[in-house]
Amino acid sequence: MSISSQTGMVSPLVSVIINCRNGREYLPAAIGSVLAQTYGNWEIVLWDNASEQDIKSIALSYGDARIRYCRGETTVRLGHARNLAIERARGELIAFLDSDDLWRPEKLQKMVPLFNDPEVSLAVSDVESFNERGLRKRLGTTKKFVRGLCFGNLLADYFLVLSSAMVRGSTLKKHALRFPDDFEMVEELDLFLRLAYISKIDFSAEVLAEWRVHGGSTTWQRFHLLADETEHMLGGMIKSWPEIERRFANEIHSRRVWIVRQRALALWMRGDGQGTRTCLRNFPGVLPWKIYSLYLLSRLDAKRWLPIIYRLFASNVSP
Question: Model-level pTM?
């Protein structure tokens, strides 16, 4: 720990986990946004997931010992890669920054004090998504942030973006929590829900992170996996904690509605209108009208209607 001469407050070391596989075009901006932080007690653990591009030269070009470059010999799933990076983290707090995202300069300064409450193990901030066309959208305009013991809130309407998140390292160690290795899309959803089940969450309502949305991102390349992995994750949580089926029945129903929405959207975006309609018909319950409207929309060409899809069903700007 270090002591801030201006405030007298204890300033814990923050380990910033940046995972990348290639992506040289975005990585310097991500690293630069950490270098610009007004809070100085940080380190970057830059995990190179066996990139084909030369990532090491970027890391070394700054001549800053706080940037620690690590490379895996083989490419592994993203959750596994993040776990490998966390194992090398020295900080009491662990923050995450995707290699194509950005932080605002006061990100760490504003969020570290949220951990003054020893019961808080996860904190996030509001996020602004943006694309290459300059379109921007603030997550807080469509999502309601909550604090405290809010597992049910997160399960029903997840509002976290990885690049805004910070966790307490000792909680991960005490409860042997880690990103699951068997998911490609919802590894952070699984980990953060498990943290929310055992501890408090806090948040900053300020936009402190920027989420870059582009067609090459994992989210858009593997959109079809979201529903299947979320269903698998939910089943695993019910197996671990059978009591949540009773305690959070309404929230679980909301998550299952979300799953059918994502599955129907993925089928429509692949051009399978018939599959979309079958998916919606087979849901064992009543769907909200907006989601069931996909039944009618699925007869149209999804690619031509993408802007409408994003406005109706997405919380971020389109790639």
Answer: 0.88
